[in-house]
Write a structure and sequence with these properties.
alpha+beta, 12-stranded antiparallel beta sheet, 10 helices, 23 strands, 28% helix, disordered N terminus, Mycobactin biosynthesis salicylate synthase MbtI, lyase, Anth_synth_I-like, magnesium, ADC_synthase
């Protein structure tokens, strides 16, 4: 923020014509270098770029760290639920109005959390693209003018061609994990668990170019691209973890049950029939929907909780899923943070019962971090929108990686679950782009 700028001033705003596709504009802003820290978040019909840092909240396993304009940085220990620590920290923000964007790690829900659990920024400038227009708002008018000039500049060169990543590695280790999970289910330890595997990318990556290439080939419920504190990620989320509007209406969208997609009419129709009739896939989906209902009962008016579109097939890039929507209205005294706390992590990326599944995941896998966590937008109005982070690329300290998992139930087989991870990785692996200047 510029010296002397008051945070109670009305933001500078400009509206310019969005002469190019929103994806092109978002990729241009992210790759421009104007804002080291930034988040791109896509919802149906609306794309948002959040650039720079006006305020910042970082949560780790022992403390919450906040930076606000006009104040010295603050660090405070917290006890109890991490979601409550975020709620209280944002409630104390010295800003009359704010929107925040960031991410939450899977370990946010662990009984023994470790590492960075959440990172949110209130941006210096926001760009919202919808209905053919780009609305630019910022605390500093100079930021607004720089963004407007950038959006009006000549079209940048095309992104580099992708360098596909081979998804068929690490099969033996993963199959052994699945077999152990099936044994645990037979022993009654839990009913369902999502077991995942990490796939390292053997070259430096261009994360923004990967977003551009991958988004053009995917059909996500939400998409995102972020660079916060040097950690980068981009992905094409297949499902909404939690959406809360200003009136307290909550929605979650569990997807469970998977088959390959994108091989043409007859092949896709055949795998769709398999998906809709396979007892294992139907059972996996039904128990996930039931769990989502139970979670909303904890924070919503029980009479308002309902299921719509039960077991509708959702096409998401290289795979198709069974999907349902579960909704409700927050009970008096409840907030969007309560809804997030009840639904996080997504049942379709953790297991049933959640606590036992999360504990077992900690034994079976290395730390997940953002995988199976969330990228979220939250507002002073009480609205929140959180995408489940799957089908994503992660990049930190010069190392990039992918990750995918499969839902394990009593009827699972190691070979089929390994194939499912390959199918899911194929939503992102073919579109990974090398950083410029890196040889093939």
């Amino acid at each position: 923020m510029s010296p002397g700028l008051r945070t109670d001033e009305k933001p500078t705003e400009r509206v310019v014509e969005a002469a190019r596709a929103p994806l092109d504009l978002m990729t241009r802003l992210a790759g421009s270098g104007l804002f080291t820290d930034h988040v791109v978040y896509e919802r149906p019909g609306r794309w948002t770029f959040a650039g720079g840092v006006l305020g910042e909240v970082v949560l780790d396993s022992g403390a919450v760290h906040a930076r606000w304009p006009g104040r010295a940085p603050e660090t405070a220990p917290y006890t109890g639920r991490p979601a409550a620590a975020l709620r209280e920290t944002f409630a104390a923000a010295p800003l009359p109005a704010w929107n925040a964007y960031g991410w939450i790690a899977f370990e946010f829900a662990s009984a023994r959390p470790s590492g960075r659990l959440a990172h949110f920024v209130v941006p210096r400038v926001e760009v919202h693209v919808e209905d053919g227009a780009a609305r630019i708002a910022g605390a500093d008018p100079r930021d607004v003018e720089r963004v407007a000039d950038l959006l009006a500049a000549d079209v940048p060169p095309a992104p580099p061609a992708p360098s596909p990543v081979d998804v068929r590695e690490g099969g033996d280790v993963y199959r052994a994990r699945v077999a152990r999970a099936v044994d645990d289910i037979a022993a009654g330890r839990y009913q369902k668990i999502i077991v995942s595997r990490r796939l390292d990318v053997p070259y430096p990556v261009d994360v923004a170019a990967t977003y551009a290439c991958g988004r053009a080939a995917n059909t996500p419920a939400r998409s995102f691209l972020l660079d916060l504190g040097g950690f980068q990620a981009t992905g094409f989320s297949p499902e909404v973890l939690a959406s809360v509007d200003d009136g307290g209406r909550v929605m979650t969208q569990p997807l469970a049950g998977t088959r390959a997609f994108g091989f043409g009419g007859d092949a896709d129709a055949r795998t769709r029939r398999e998906l809709e009739t396979d007892p294992k896939e139907i059972f996996e989906h039904a128990v996930s929907v039931r769990t989502s209902q139970e979670e909303l009962y904890r924070v919503c008016d029980p009479d308002s909780v309902h299921v719509t579109g039960f077991m509708t097939v959702k096409e998401r890039g290289s795979v198709q899923h069974l999907g349902s929507s579960v909704g409700g209205v927050l009970a008096p005294g409840r907030t969007c943070w309560d809804a997030l706390d009840a639904l996080f992590p997504g049942v379709t990326a953790s297991g049933i019962p959640k606590a036992e599944a999360i504990e077992a995941i900690g034994e079976l896998e290395e730390r997940r971090g953002l995988y199976a966590g969330a990228v979220a937008a939250v507002s002073h109005t009480g609205a929140l929108d959180a995408a489940l982070v799957l089908r994503a690329l992660y990049n930190e300290n010069g190392q990039a990686w992918l990750r995918a998992g499969a839902g394990i139930v009593s009827g699972s087989t190691p070979d089929r679950e390994y194939e499912e991870t390959c199918e899911k990785l194929s939503s992102i692996a073919p579109y990974v782009c090398k950083a410029l200047g890196v040889r093939r």
